[in-house]
Design goal:
Blueprint (H helix, E strand, L loop, with lengths): L2 E3 L5 E3 L18 E2 L5 E9 L6 E9 L1 E5 L5 E7 L1 E4 L2 E4 L5 E6 L18 E4 L3 E8 L9 E4 L12 E6 L2 E5 L5 E5 L4 E4 L7 E7 L8 E6 L5 E11 L6 E7 L2 E10 L11 E13 L5 E7 L5 E7 L16 E5 L12 E3 L1 E9 L15
Antiparallel strand pairs: 1-28, 2-28, 3-13, 4-12, 4-14, 4-17, 5-11, 5-16, 6-13, 7-10, 7-12, 8-9, 14-15, 16-17, 18-25, 19-24, 19-26, 20-23, 20-25, 20-28, 21-22, 21-24, 25-27
């Protein structure tokens, strides 16, 4: 085999946590309907792992926020076509496939597993699709209301959005779609560019933490490659420090340890993205289990982060898919069994890939892209 360097600064897997900025590490909760005629929508391009052909959607899973259900209201969830109005992409407001949801059966801040839609919907990979929530023909009853949680707030991207209709018009909401589209073949699909999550987790650790003093992302790559950097979310207070390490089993790989130096930036009480560069490229072998860990080197606590999904298959909507999971260990012992519904907010930069050649070829350098 021969390795060729990826042009420019490489590729991140999973990607940098660019959707989450300091101070906004939370759900978006501004999608609220509390009047008859108001509507919520999540819109984007239909995405699934096979990346070609069509899938038949049979269920929609999503995350409610605060629910008020004393009046007995029913909400209609529907799949709809997407149209453009001026500079906005919006649902066409024709309910194609539907699910009737009794609000009293929806639990605040708890992932909602959808029931079968009134009919399956066949959708091509990459086609635009809208999911819409609204009160049914009976309208809002009593003081009932519903919030649909977005994956993260304070983001607007072209081609993927959440929208809110009040006072007769649609407007952008600052949040990413947080829905899973279950297909009849048992696979999970999503709206491309969304952020599917059921919980965010903060882990406070130090070198002497008794329950776990290393938090790691267990992962595999399905191709031979090399990596040269790592990144993630962390809070480093005064007097804290940590190493970032790639392990094979319980053994640190040579040259695969780098230190986060908190003296290079001011301390903060909000999560910030760190990046470290290893001393040399680290070779990873396809279909081999590795762990990327954060290991505190002082007894002063720091914070690292993870997120949960409601079902292991939902990780297919995130970069890296279901092979990227959360694990911990204590005092250089064995790694705990991976939690398949949780992932650390960490990532690696792929710097070179195996070109499949037995003899190799000259290195390619094209500069920054």
């Amino acid at each position: 085999m021969a390795y060729v360097q990826i042009p420019g600064s490489g590729l991140w897997l999973p990607g940098p946590v660019s959707e989450i900025s300091a101070g906004t590490f939370s759900f978006g909760t501004s999608l609220l309907i509390d009047a008859t005629g108001e509507k919520i929508s999540a819109l984007g391009n239909f995405y699934f792992a096979a990346r070609s052909g069509t899938k038949d959607i049979t269920k929609v899973h999503w995350m409610p926020g605060t629910v008020v259900s004393a009046g007995g209201s029913i909400v209609t969830l529907s799949l709809q076509d997407v149209i453009t109005t001026g500079t906005l992409m919006v649902p066409d407001e024709t309910q194609d496939q539907t699910e009737a949801i009794t609000l009293s059966g929806v639990t605040t801040n708890t992932w909602k597993t959808g029931a079968a839609l009134s009919a399956n919907r066949t959708v091509a990979f990459g086609a635009a699709l809208a999911v819409v929530w609204e009160f049914d023909g009976g309208g809002r009853l009593g003081a009932d209301s519903l919030i649909v949680r977005t994956g993260v707030p304070a983001q607007q991207f072209y081609g993927v959005a959440t929208m809110l209709k009040t006072s007769g018009s649609w407007a952008f909401n600052n949040g990413l779609p947080n829905v899973i589209l279950e297909c009849t073949d048992g696979t999970m699909a999503s709206l491309d560019g969304g952020f599917v999550v059921s919980a965010f987790n903060t882990h406070s650790i130090a070198s002497n933490t008794a329950s776990a003093d290393e938090y790691a992302m267990e992962f595999q790559v399905n191709f031979n490659c090399k990596v040269d950097a790592a990144a993630g979310l962390i809070i480093l207070g005064s007097g804290t420090s940590a190493d970032v390490i790639i392990y094979s089993g319980t053994t640190a790989i040579a040259n695969a340890t780098a230190t986060i130096d908190p003296t290079r930036n001011s301390t903060t009480s909000s999560p910030r993205r760190f990046m470290v560069t290893f001393a040399a490229e680290i070779t990873l072998t396809a279909n081999t289990t590795y762990r990327l860990a954060v290991k505190p080197t002082t007894t002063t606590a720091l914070s690292v982060y993870s997120f949960d999904v409601s079902s292991a298959g939902f990780l297919a909507s995130h970069p890296g898919g279901t092979a990227y999971n959360y694990t911990t260990r204590v005092d250089l012992g064995s790694w705990a069994a991976a939690t398949t519904t949780r992932r650390m907010m960490l990532g690696l930069r792929i710097s070179s890939v195996d070109d499949g050649s037995a003899t190799g070829r000259p290195e390619i350098r094209l500069g920054n892209l």
